Amino acid sequence: MDGVITMEGERKFTLPVDSEHKATVLPILSAAKPHMLAFHLSWIQFFSCFVSSFAAPPLLPVIRDNLNLTATDIGNAGIASVSGAVFARVAMGTACDLFGPRLASATITLLTAPAVYCSAITDSAVSFLLVRFFTGFSLATFVSTQFWMSSMFSPPVVGRANGIAAGWGNLGGGATQLIMPLVYDLIVRIGATSFTAWRIAFFIPAFFQTMAAFAVMVFGQDMPDGNFQRLEKSGDKPRDNFLKVIYHGIRNYRGWITALCYGYSFGVELTIDNIIAQYFYDRFDLKLHTAGIIAASFGLANIFSRPSGGVLSDILGKRFGIRGRLWGWWVFQTTGGVLCIALGVVGSLGASVAVMIVFSVFVQASCGLTFGIVPFVSHRSLGVISGMSGAGGNVGAVLTQVIFFNGSRYSTELGITYMGIMIIACTLPICLIYFPQWGGMFCGPQPNYTEDDYYLSEWSEEEQRKGLHEASMKFAGNSKRGGTRKVDSATSPAAAPTPV
């Protein structure tokens, strides 16, 4: 799993790599170790966690009758399902910085799997809320997914790597809208009562999540050159100072803006996953299975929408630098806000479905565009910045559901309209993001300020004398103009797979 060592001692990989041994291509159909194997393990694990976290919403019409849930109970459970991951995602970012994405992600996935199994024995509104709360912790694997991709893929392709891995993981939010009703119907046909069938159905996502965690633990690898523990023991990767990693993450204002904006792209996606099946079921008097299929189309759009945001970010970065990435992010997320308003206003079934599908493309692409920026904010505190941004998504979901979808204060359609206004307003701070070496949306770069200057500022003179900054300098060299630099491969395989 550590690659092939040549006679001269130089590491040789299946894929072309840069000076940090990060892959410079992303051949989707490949499972080459360690880059593409990490890619596939990360999105499959995240997919399983999404399936588990949103297994309940498509069965809510049955669950609410069995447990006598009120609208407030359902709203609180939906909030609980995304609130737990707020702190888990921040912690996950730090854990990735210190222990590596493989160990951090597999651990949280295994620890939360019992909560999914316990969904089968809930008997009250309180216990239902608790299992959704603890299951939601597993969504912290998003942070490890993004950290892992940023550790394995070079800046010119990191946007698409992040976008595709997270998008295919988010696909679980749509897949579960199909899977759970189908499993439920199958169990009923076998002979179980409806109130027993929904409970048995939860064993499917629970088992899937458990197996995904073991696969990551056994087959995964933290970095191109090996796992954190081995690299630290060999001296190839110095152990960083915990407090300084945290400090340089939270002091970077760009991370706070990405967190806010992600709150109204991914946060909106989480909110829709929680409400959309019941919305179509109640408003248009549909059958449970039909409402589930329509709701699934929102999440299933992630198969191409979020990845397209990552790919677009890389294309804009190659053509216009970081300023192009920022403009693309703002345009797509603002358009998503406008479409969200339209979704709340239209009154026919056909128009609602059509607007929802287009809306899903823009809001999910915005998620991919967000994490086309995140890897450039900080190299030393990449995990912290990823954790802050990921947690921002959950905070946005919690606030939105508390304000607009908790109880009967607003109708669901009016809540959706107001959510669209929030998206537009909370996207405006993107214009405040400025990188002195690259510029911002409206301003160019500072004269004579380089990538080395920016990433070196995270290290003290004493740390530089010890050579602790060397990895950051390699990243600086590979991130010219925000991912436009054509990186020379450290290896040149004779027959590298065709990049996507």
Automatic annotation (TrEMBL):
GO cellular component terms, alphabetically, are: endomembrane system; membrane
Any one Gene Ontology molecular-function term assigned to this protein's record: nitrate transmembrane transporter activity
Q: Where are the transmembrane segments?
A: 43-62, 74-92, 98-117, 129-148, 168-188, 200-220, 288-305, 326-347, 353-377, 384-404, 416-435
Is ATP-binding among this UniProt entry's keywords?
no
Q: List every stretch annotated Disordered.
A: 467-500
InterPro entries attached here?
A: MFS, MFS_dom, MFS_trans_sf, NO3_transporter
Keywords of this protein's UniProt record, alphabetized? Answer: Membrane, Nitrate assimilation, Transmembrane, Transmembrane helix
Annotated membrane topology is: Multi-pass membrane protein
> Which segments constitute the Major facilitator superfamily (MFS) profile domain?
37-437
- Output compositional bias ranges, type Low complexity: 489-500
Q: Where in the cell is it found?
A: Endomembrane system
**Chief place of localization:** membrane
Source species, domain of life: Eukaryota
Biological processes per GO annotation = nitrate assimilation
Q: Which residues form a coiled coil?
A: none
Q: What family does the entry list?
A: Belongs to the major facilitator superfamily. Nitrate/nitrite porter (TC 2.A.1.8) family.
Q: What is this protein called?
A: Major facilitator superfamily (MFS) profile domain-containing protein
- The source organism is Nepenthes gracilis
